[in-house]
């Protein structure tokens, strides 16, 4: 009999693996609906949807492996990172989906979220004030006008599978929709700056590195407290707090 593997779990959602099937349980049905719709529209490989019921989505496992995870050693050849960059570009050039995604929040909304989070990080003693202030300054460059693209919205390296330097699929589309394409690129390379050149080589020229760095700061500042409160270690080597330290 296949064993049940708990892939990830917190108060909002959980993912289980049973053999070659992944079961995603989400308290917010909208996220499941968004995921299914986005995978149907995305011009990149995605998992097969086996069935969907209220609050549960069953997906077939993808062949291959990921390029690693935040805080862990990266894997894969430069060619694999370039292949991932090319697939991200293909997604960003696709027709826009109907929904606004996580990467599509307005400048005003992001600025308000960021300022409130920075204040909480300092007031609650989660991070030193100077580290927060300096990264808030770096993050400012992300708060600028951008042209909407079809974005994944949570494009961590753990969400992209490759086999023999070819992308076999991209998972976890619940935050997908119209958004800033540089948000995806920054999320994908967060904590793995050494592979940024390879990703850009596959993606194409014209990337503003200052904005990529800004999104690294902004995403990390917004994530630290949530991660701590949900049982994740943002202070582990190579994770969000180390990213913030590296940017100042």
UniProtKB/TrEMBL annotation:
<dbReference type="InterPro" id="IPR002575">
    <property type="entry name" value="Aminoglycoside_PTrfase"/>
</dbReference>
<dbReference type="GO" id="GO:0016301">
    <property type="term" value="F:kinase activity"/>
</dbReference>
<dbReference type="InterPro" id="IPR011009">
    <property type="entry name" value="Kinase-like_dom_sf"/>
</dbReference>
<keyword id="KW-0808">Transferase</keyword>
<dbReference type="Pfam" id="PF01636">
    <property type="entry name" value="APH"/>
</dbReference>
<feature type="domain" description="Aminoglycoside phosphotransferase">
    <location>
        <begin position="40"/>
        <end position="206"/>
    </location>
</feature>
<dbReference type="InterPro" id="IPR051678">
    <property type="entry name" value="AGP_Transferase"/>
</dbReference>
<protein>
    <submittedName>
        <fullName>Aminoglycoside phosphotransferase (APT) family kinase protein</fullName>
    </submittedName>
</protein>
<keyword id="KW-0418">Kinase</keyword>
